[in-house]
Design goal:
Layout: H1 14-20, E1 30-37, E2 44-45, E3 53-55, H2 57-69, E4 74-80, H3 97-109, E5 114-119, H4 141-158, E6 162-165, H5 172-182, E7 189-196, H6 203-208, H7 228-240, E8 244-248, H8 254-263, E9 268-272, H9 274-285, H10 291-304, E10 309-312, H11 315-323
Parallel strand pairs: 1-3, 1-4, 1-10, 4-5, 5-6, 6-7, 7-8, 8-9, 9-10
Antiparallel strand pairs: 2-3
Helix pairs in contact: 2-3, 4-5
Bound molecules: ligand PBG.
Ligand PBG binds near residues 122 and 166.
């Protein structure tokens, strides 16, 4: 008449729960995505992401140093240029905002943290697509690859330890690896955005990078109805030389993350994207959820689903909590 099995015994006290916890989030597991805006002397708040800013070059340095002090594992930089054009030439220009910011951050923090760089054209193109367009207005895969290769070398030269191709063009990892090696950057690693889904949750990011996109990215980002093709993308990225792989977004794709983690023989990252951040902030601001607990619960769930690293706008703050 009494239960013979009592799982609650292992939940009875904080000490017991601490002893048996399977999953841990450590500061070193976290990667902070950062935006840097060309031509400003003060950081500009992003309305849709309360607490996140478009940095000036100076405030970016400072925030990078703070992340290092908090024990954060990596930084992922996004550049927001003042001028855009059809081919995204600001992305390959050594004086383009992302490349100068990479050099700034590298000189500020050196090798004390892993400096990563978004390798994509969408922030730099006037049409807002991740690649260049052909005469019919479609995204031209192979013409884009040549630019990605050049962009990867520019970012490595500027100081990126890791480049993160996020444009979902076929063959992108391979051409970037080849270009990096040919330019002597054999030690620059590639974090492949392997399973990147087209998502409504990128919404706030569009403001963060002042995106000029009209339309969508459905011809290159994955359809959220599919999981099998994530494994195909994984196989291709590994074959092409990816050093690490990523699943993005995180929370609506934890099943994909688990599948990738079970199959990959390289470190696996997941990106808690802008909309995931904004949802927590909006609900917390309304008093509907406990913000800090929600943040840790989401980060822990992403780790539990198989992520070695998590890209999150909470990286520095969460790392600070975890350090104390
Ligand atoms: C593309 C890119 C995007 C994000 C990171 N890299 C936007 C997109 O694919 O539409 C989104 C990140 C976020 O929402 O936090 N360069």
């Amino acid at each position: 008449m009494f239960p013979t099995q009592r799982p609650r015994r292992l939940r009875a006290t904080p000490a017991m729960r601490r002893l048996v916890a399977e999953t841990e989030v450590r500061p070193r597991n976290l990667i902070l995505p950062m935006f840097v805006l060309e031509g400003v002397s003060e950081p500009v708040p992003i309305q849709a992401m309360p607490g996140v800013v478009q940095h000036s070059r100076e405030s970016l340095r400072k925030a990078a140093a703070e992340a290092v002090a908090a024990g954060v594992g990596g930084l992922m930089l996004f550049g927001v240029p003042t001028e855009k054009d059809a081919t995204g030439s600001g992305g390959v220009d050594p004086d383009g905002i992302l490349n100068v910011a990479l050099a700034d951050v590298r000189s500020e923090v050196g090798d004390s943290i892993v400096i990563m760089s978004d390798l994509c054209l969408d922030e730099f193109t006037d049409h807002g697509h991740c690649g260049v367009l052909d005469d019919s207005g479609a995204v031209d895969n192979d013409a884009t690859l040549a630019i990605y290769a050049e962009m990867g070398v520019a970012q490595a030269r500027a100081g990126a330890h890791v480049v993160g191709p996020s444009g979902m063009m076929d063959g992108q990892v391979g051409v970037i690896r080849e270009a990096l090696d040919a330019a002597g950057y054999t030690d620059t690693a590639i974090l492949a955005y392997t399973a990147k889904y087209t998502s409504a949750f990128y919404g706030p990011f569009r403001e963060a990078v002042q995106s000029s996109l009209t339309g969508d990215r459905k011809t290159y980002q994955q359809d959220h109805a599919n999981s099998r093709e994530a494994l195909r993308e994984l196989a291709l990225d590994l074959e092409e030389g990816a050093d690490m792989v990523m699943v993005k977004p995180a929370m609506a794709y934890l099943d994909i993350l688990r599948t990738i983690a079970d199959h990959a023989d390289v470190p696996v990252s997941a990106y808690q994207i802008s909309g995931e951040y904004s949802m927590i902030e909006a609900a917390a601001a309304n008093g509907w959820i406990d913000r800090d607990r929600a943040v840790m619960e989401t980060l822990t769930s992403i780790r539990r689903a198989g992520a070695d690293q998590i890209l999150t706008y909470y990286a520095t703050e969460a790392a600070t909590w975890l350090q104390s």
